[in-house]
Amino acid sequence: MREIAEFAVKTHNDEAKTGLEVKKVVKGETQVVAGTNYRLLIKVKDGAGMKSFKAIVWDKPWEHFRSLTSFKAVPAKV
Description:
Elements: H1 2-16, E1 21-32, E2 36-46, E3 49-60, E4 65-74
Antiparallel strand pairs: 1-2, 2-3, 3-4
């Protein structure tokens, strides 16, 4: 799961021109669908602060294909 989380954050950083850094995979689930969908809850470092994001990555290793299909911030709890 860590490898998938690293891919998700790197892809998001490249697209959004951010510098997020994976600190922890809080939760991870998989679903097999013509490949594997990984649903992750990732805690990242953003400068001096910490944030959480939900990411979905579609992976088909036999085709050397991996795609970030969703990357959304999780609101901080009050």
